[in-house]
Amino acid sequence: MELPDDIFTEPADVDPETLANLGPLRRLAGIWEGQRGVDINPKADGPETRDYYERIEMQPIDPQANGPQLFYGLRYHLHVNTREEDISFHDQVGYWLYEPATGLILQTLAIPRGQIAIAAGHAAPDATKLVLKATRGQTEYGICSTTFLDLAFTTESYEISVEFHKDGTWSYVIDTTLLVKGRDEPFLHRDRNRLTKVGEPDLNPWAKIARGLAPSVEKTE
């Protein structure tokens, strides 16, 4: 990446309407449910396949600037359960981000077992498929884990492929390559599901202010 001479000045003509500037991520905005999830994960006796269902909420955030770099994005929370138990099977939070100037797509993710990652890819505004990747050891788009996870279930790579369908649904396949302690071969941990919209997204806070739908915050000395 070639840096501009001025790395401090933020864009002056930022559109407050996040939903209008998400590029291919616009199709992810909203509340989604998927009933046909399949998870293949490593166990002591060999691979285990579990069926799951999930709910994902993706809401627009205000535009975010790193100096001249500008992102529009969605904040997300996903929650996963299985039919045979009531407790959480998986929980995850993060952001999907889009840089209109370059087509850069980012997914940040954090799970409550001590692991975070940033996956990256590029896509055109009208793309019907997204592919994002993160690799262990990279300082830009990488993976960070607790000491236990890094030694016992080393996450070498993460890849998410998202496909948008003509009926308004979207599906994903997530491939996570693990090096499991005591095993000779890498393990491909795969998750997949198809999501149907059950709720529309809200407006981001700045868009509400710009439309006169929310009072602006007055600054006081």
Summarize the structure.
The chain is 5% helix and 57% strand. It has helices at residues 147-152, 205-210; strands at 30-43, 46-66, 69-82, 85-99, 104-111, 115-122, 129-135, 143-145, 153-164, 170-180, 187-199.
Measured as a percent range, the helix fraction is under 10%
The total of beta strands comes to 11
- Strand order, sheet with most strands: 7-9-10-11-1-2-3-4-5-6-8
- Strand % is over 45%
What order do the SSEs take from the amino end to the carboxyl end, as H and E? Answer: EEEEEEEEHEEEH
What is the straight-line distance between the termini?
40 Å
| Uncertain parts | none
Radius of gyration: 19 Å
Shape: globular
Could you report the average pLDDT, rounded to the nearest whole number? 95
**What does the largest sheet look like?**
11 strands, antiparallel
Structural class: mainly beta
Q: Work out the helix count.
A: 2
Describe the structure.
It is a single chain. Strands 7-9-10-11-1-2-3-4-5-6-8 form an eleven-stranded antiparallel sheet. With 221 residues, the protein is mainly beta. The protein has helices spanning 147-152, 205-210; strands at residues 30-43, 46-66, 69-82, 85-99, 104-111, 115-122, 129-135, 143-145, 153-164, 170-180, 187-199. The chain is 5% helix and 57% strand. The chain starts with 29 loop residues before the first strand and ends in an 11-residue tail after the last helix.
Task: Note the main attributes of this structure.
single chain, 221 residues, mainly beta, 2 helices, globular
